[in-house]
Amino acid sequence: MKPPVTLDPAILEWQRRIAELASTIPELAASDFPQRRLGARLLSDVLAEEFTSPEPDDVVIDDVSIDGPLGDLRIRRYRPADASGLLPTQVWLHGGGFWAGTPDEILNDRLCGARSRDARIQILSVDYALAPEHPFPAGIEDALAAVDAAVTDPALGADPARVGIGGNSAGALIAASAALALRDRGDSPLMHQALEVLPASLEPVGESAALYGEGFGVDDAEAVARLYAPEGTPRDQASPLSAVDLSELPSTLILAAEYDPLRDSAIAYARRLTTADVPVNVYLGTGHVHGSVGLTATFAAAREWQRYLTDALVRAYHH
Q1: Cβ atoms of 174 and 138 closer than 8 Å
Q2: pLDDT attached to residue 1
Q3: Can you list the residues of the chain whose pLDDT is less than 50?
Q4: Is 312 helix (H, G, I), strand (E, B) or coil?
Q5: pTM for this model (two decimals)
Q6: Closest to 97 (Cα-Cα) out of 204, 226, 206
Q7: What share of the chain is helix, strand, coil (3-state, %, to 5)?
Q8: Where exactly are the structural domains of the chain?
Q9: Between the chain's N and C termini, which has fewer beta carbons within 10 Å?
Q10: Of residues 177, 251, 290, 292, which has the active-site annotation?
């Protein structure tokens, strides 16, 4: 029998608004993925306007383009307005279940903008290729291209000696996979990885998957994983927890939500990293569900999550 869960009123109001708004966005039910992405963007933007603190006005946000595996690869860049020269830089991969999401979402501008300003780093948010049109390894290859460009192209404004990677949800899996690929390539420049609400495995892991698999924000995790990694995809490359060797990876921050079906996979990944002698810091967001880390306007625990992450980035990139 599942134990009772009492969610914060801020989360309950957010969930109520999701249900209310979703009924007014027919694109969310479309079979056509571009239409579904449009619906997801519309829903995300309305929610961010209501539940996420505004982006700071002392951050410069612009779009740049690099050569990617599929052609021009767009990157949204965030820099503190008073910064100049080459900055410590995090390459960042947004969430969206592998099939949705964009750097252009209001949510991402607000969270990345605040993080860039407060941690005094540059963030390069990658407009990576999405499934099912571009399944594994397309997103990883875009992340690798962004890391390589950050290190080799001074026009991007990154300090090549202080480059890391990070991501949220599906983006966290892509970030972790990219870190493994760079390690295997033998020339990884990464000094840090920050993995928020990480699905470390493409299959359900642990008690959290059974307890919170429905009604906590990730009801279709297995179906979404199949879009990204269809049958036959090598799990040791697509699923970080399935990797045989986790040694020689950069210092890692893993942030997991208490009521998230993905929680136990993230914690299992942290344990394996520790066994492989990788420095790991784990933050368990008490009271959080999978998507509540962005509710910075209404949920005190979301503000605490963001403060913890920002402080960790300061330590990683400036000390």
Answers
A1: no
A2: 54
A3: none
A4: helix
A5: 0.97
A6: 226
A7: 45, 20, 35
A8: 56-318
A9: N
A10: 290
